[in-house]
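Troubleshooting log. The previous run stalled partway through. Resubmitting the same two chains, unchanged.
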Amino acid sequence: DAGITQSPRHKVTETGTPVTLRCHQTENHRYMYWYRQDPGHGLRLIHYSYGVKDTDKGEVSDGYSVSRSKTEDFLLTLESATSSQTSVYFCAISGTGYTEAFFGQGTRLTVV
Amino acid sequence: DAKTTQPPSMDCAEGRAANLPCNHSTISGNEYVYWYRQIHSQGPQYIIHGLKNNETNEMASLIITEDRKSSTLILPHATLRDTAVYYCIVQEGGATNKLIFGTGTLLAVQP
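Second attempt completed without errors. Output:
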């Protein structure tokens, strides 16, 4: 299995609090992605990174920020969590060129 | 937005071939077609990808039409464990390498 770890795996937080999810890889892959998945929807891209300190917005980036200060870590921050951000969050990594992406196990976030 | 269109659901009998179609009529010349699947609530799993030639690996075959506007994923002998949501993706290459998912096809393999 590809070396990709998400933490925490489960989190319950209150509305208005900041939350940070971590994606850690040991594959030295260039690209990292954050997705959210809600019932009835496929995976929707939040933010992605194409190198250290190089990030860009995806389809549903409002209310989220990211940081990548080193190759192995990609952090997703909810500045002020809302109930609409209750979701399952997946991180993915991929190398350069047309290669496969590897996905983490997911983080189930509940905002109450 | 996703560049692919897939049927929302399909059934297949166990042991038979499952043929999952995908339409990607706006695909560009340097964009690849990828297939992933997601079993229950796990992270998606890579299956196969291709540019214009047919591809086969230990999991599946990918048939891409000559005009590249559509493709078919073939699971040659479907098992119950193949029940999953299958996503067809056109990957934007270049510097960003974005992966944009559509809603996928729920394949139900029946005993």
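Takeaways: Strands of chain B lie at 9-13, 18-23, 32-38, 45-50, 55-56, 61-64, 70-75, 84-91, 105-110. The two ends of chain B are 36 Å apart (CA to CA).
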